[in-house]
Each structure stands twice: as C-alpha cells, then as structure tokens.
Write a structure and sequence with these properties.
Blueprint (H helix, E strand, L loop, with lengths): L1 H31 L2 H9 L2 H18 L1 H4 L30 H36 L4
Length: 138
C-alpha cells in the first residue's frame, strides 16, 4: 500500500513537472517566434510543447556530448563495477568505463536512429500515398 502511494506521488510530481516544463517552453517559443507561428504554438496542446522541449534537450545533449561527458565514450577510467561517486556519476561498467559518459554519447546514436527511421517512414509513406492517389483500383 505504501509503495503504491509512493509511486502515485512520484507519478503526480512527474506529470506536474512535465506540464510546467511544457508551459515554460511554450512561453519561450511564443516570445521568439514570428506572430503566425506564435499563434499556432499557443493553440497547440501542452503535451506538444513538452514533446518539443524533450526533443530540443536530446538534440542539445547529442550536439554537446563531448563537452558534457567527463570521459571519452570508450575510455577505461576506473575499476570494474565501481559504485556511483563524485568522480563517476553513475559508476562504471564491467570494463571500467564511465556509465554517465556512455549514456551521454549514446544519445547521439538514439537521435540519429530516430531521425533516420522517421525520414525513411516519411519517404515510404509519401511514395505509397502518391501511388494510392494516382493508381486507380488500389
């Protein structure tokens, strides 16, 4: 029962934090965007603003990965399975590599795979949509 209440509390905190982040991101975007785009952003759901904020965060982490990560992606920096500390924020893995650095550099792979997959799905969908519109009987 206590675990369920604790989970519910954390879930509520996460939802409120996401709403606040979405609202703040929308406020910033509407101030810097042209009038037409700002009007569109104001009418968009708050979840869309939150989603855009998450995407921008991922892009910034991917671009700034060498600056953010304290060590190289494949650099062995400590003993195996060291616990989290001030030197290794998330500890080390079975080879002694810093897990935080690997996580930050892993964002690059995630963003590039997501971009390529989305572009491929768009291209296939556009071709199939054009074929469906022009070829009769399909």
């Amino acid at each position: 029962m206590v675990a369920t209440l604790r989970f519910t509390l954390w879930l509520a905190v996460a939802v409120v934090a996401a709403a606040v982040l979405g609202w703040l991101f929308r406020a910033v975007l509407t101030r810097i965007a042209p009038a037409n785009a700002a009007r569109l952003l104001r009418s968009a759901p708050l979840s869309a603003s939150f989603g855009m904020a998450v995407i921008v965060f991922y892009l910034l982490v991917a671009i700034l990965a060498p600056t953010i990560a304290p060590f190289g992606e494949r650099e062995v920096v400590g003993a195996q399975f060291m616990p989290a500390s001030s030197e290794f924020l998330l500890g080390t893995d079975n080879l002694g590599r810093d897990m935080f650095s690997r996580l930050v550099f892993g964002v690059r792979n995630t963003v590039s795979i997501a971009f390529i997959t989305t572009a491929l799905a768009f291209a296939v969908g556009a071709v199939l949509g054009l074929l469906a519109a022009t070829v009769s009987g399909w």
